[in-house]
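1st attempt posting a full record on here, be nice pls
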Amino acid sequence: MDETISIIIPVYNVENYLPKCLNSLMHQTYRNLEIILIDDGSPDKCGQICDWYARKDSRIHVIHKQNEGVARARNDGIEYASGDYISFVDSNDWMSKDAYEILYKGLKKYHADCAVGGCVKVIEKNGKMLLENRQHTKLKCQTSAKAMKHVLLEGSAVWNRLFKKEVFKEIRFPLDRVNDDEVVALHAYAECKKIVFLDKDTYFYRIRQNSITTSDFSVRNVDYYYNSIDNLNFIKQKMPKLTDCAEYKYIKAMLYSYVNLKRIKNNPEAKKIRKQIQTDIKKSRSIAFQNQYVTFPMKVLMILCSI
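the predicted structure (as tokens):
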């Protein structure tokens, strides 16, 4: 185990959660790590916590910068990384003690370009953390096309994965967008010949109250729709046989954005975007009706949103 894994962690306003994350990384059974903390201008004590851990463990490197968002922070981490492999961790989550040993050995055993571990969702509610009831993950190896299909139909994240560094030679996170994980996961899988999904849990994903994933819909969440357009164009060029899947994602994102924008009252920007999306819905009805993945309720909603 002499190859180095670079772990990239954007840090912002998570002083209550960061120590658990860092402790889980410091005590990994796979020791050859480069832990890169990007303090994204955090207004709390995160910067001090990062520096304290860096003094404690020479494998930890801290980048202090002005706030520019998680995408820029991750990109800065990619530029800084010197390891043979790249991995991403969110600063309010944590890893099992043997996570990187499992991911590394899995990647090597199956001659894959990316290894994905199982994820346990931890729901934070009323000061308590509850583990999600879930079925155990199954071991499977997938081609680039199959993994990309999964991203389009089911969604994906970039954390809890171990990538060969060359996968990210040209890939960077899109700036000024939310929901960028799926975009990057899609592009990353396109650069992989084989992706192995392992049957062991390695990542604990904390679902916080008032987090981005649990907060109310806002105009910015329409990035989900804009990203689906970019993904559709990418698929048509890179993997045209998955066009149906990308069109499904596009239709789904379009309806989701339109319905939620209608709930935003007295907002001229939301009204303007909603009107444009309604025009796109009308233009896309024939595509939706012919798509094998678009469900009957979605087709009915397409009609209703066109009125």
